[in-house]
Amino acid sequence: MAEVLRVFRYFNVLLGLALVVMPWLVEDSNMIHTISSSLAGLIIMALSFSKGKIKEKYGLWDKYVV
């Protein structure tokens, strides 16, 4: 099941990008919150790009498993 849902790692990249950018746009955030949120967003984005081998076969759906 995890191989089929691999495409959602791109959603994690968008989530990480939002965590990096949004604290800089909010006026009422302190610097510690801004830096920690940006660091967490960068970590989420970096971990979202790693992917392993596809071990199972899904018939005609193999082309959709990214």
Helices and strands, with pairings:
Blueprint: H1 9-25, H2 31-48
Helix pairs in contact: 1-2
Description:
By secondary structure, the protein is mainly alpha-helical. The chain has a domain at 4-49. The protein has helices at 9-25, 31-48. The longest helix has 18 residues, at 31-48. The protein is elongated and about 50 Å long. The chain starts with 8 loop residues before the first helix and ends in an 18-residue tail after the last helix. 3% of the residues are buried.
CA-to-CA gap between the ends? 13 Å
**Which sequence of SSEs, written as H and E, runs from N to C?**
HH
Shape: elongated
Radius of gyration: 16 Å
On the 0 to 100 scale, the average pLDDT is: 84
Helix-residue proportion: 40-55%
Main beta sheet: none
The chain-level structural class is: mainly alpha
Low-confidence stretches: none
Quickly count the helices: 2
Instruction: Tell me what portion of residues adopts beta-strand conformation.
Output: under 5%
Q: What is the count of β-strands?
A: 0
